[in-house]
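Subject: sequence -> structure tokens, single chain

Hey, anyone have a minute? Need the predicted structure for the following. Not urgent.
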Amino acid sequence: MSWWDRKFQLTAQATSVRQEMLAGLTTFVSMAYILFVNPSILGDAGMNKGAVFTATAVSAIVGCVLMAFLANYPIAIAPGLGDNAFFTYSVVLGLGIPWPQAMTGVFVAAIGFTLLSLFKVRELVINAIPQDLKLAMAAGIGLFIAFVGLQGGGLVVASKSSLVALGSLTVPTTWLTIFGVLLIGILMARRIPGSIFLGLVATALLGLVTGLIKAPAHFLAPAPSLKPTWGVGLQHLSILTDPRMWAVVLIFLLVAFFDTAGTLIGLAQQAGIMKNNRMPRIGQALVADSISMLAGAVLGTTPTAAYVESSAGIAVGGKTGLTALTTGGLFALSLLFSPLLTVVTNQVTAPALIVVGVLMVSSLKDIHWDQFEVAFPAFLIIIGMPLTYNISYGIAFGFLTYPLLMTAAGRRKEVNAIMWALLFVFIILLYVLNIMPRSN
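Reply:
Had a minute. Here:
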């Protein structure tokens, strides 16, 4: 029996090294878009894109390796879409908090996240949040991300009369986005593994061929320095005297709470890991996620999360941590391709954001729309995020109304103490986000 077999229990799981490595490659190709999308989004906050590229890859390596050896699951971890959007558009651009100080919020949230995982508080709070609200949060973030993509691709523009309007179709770069969306849509419909990544590559190539995107001087280079982002969050701890920062920390904790937990359970069901409606070693998986989030905060990127794209690797036979380890190894190799950042423009990443939004709103189908006391808070979460351009407001709207409507419907006993506590937490959060003066 080989070391690989003993470590990852390949024979017991009816798999092989070849099968696991193929699954890891499939997962990597499916989620590699984050290497370019994350620098693009955090770049809007003023962060150095090269440093974010490296931080994204290294935090993914840390997460995948930890998931492989601690939990032995075929689930990859990397900086998540949703958290980066909240960081850039809600915290930095919305509240006016400079990105170095905002990164302090990520660092503090990561510490809290790790402690909550180690002491198993995370599972307690996750279980206390109604499933319908969890689903609504995923869908709302999906709509928000898609809206960001539509804007970045030039398909939606600001309008004084109607707030938003269709962008000009006479702008050549907008057609890059249209091409990318259609291509990824076709690939997804045909169930092609890595559809998002392949569509991103094809869109970039079209831009290069047509001259809409300038070709880089070279394609291989050493990984960009982490110096612009390394440890920045630790240098601005004094910002924690601003009450709004604690609201930011809370939102990062809440979003990270639900994102990874829901994804882990869904993937475990797909992989046949669930036993008696429970996920074995979920504690180890949550610890792997939380430690990688802490590492990412130090490196200079937003929170990590388990990736739903891991389902692609699971679908081709991934069953153990060797799949995640292979994905981590490919992220290490990708560090040599940072010059491609200049090729991956907003119009190239926009289709990825739009399609990921589609995938995230699929959770809408499982919400109990026939129960108004549940449907209304869920709807406020979903619609609140894109319309206020703020993830935290959307979450707050739903958590404020859910206990009240459930009580009005005669279902007060179904609302647990944690939900009532969160109601008051979000009242304070809304006050802090709206009443306190903005940072300069």
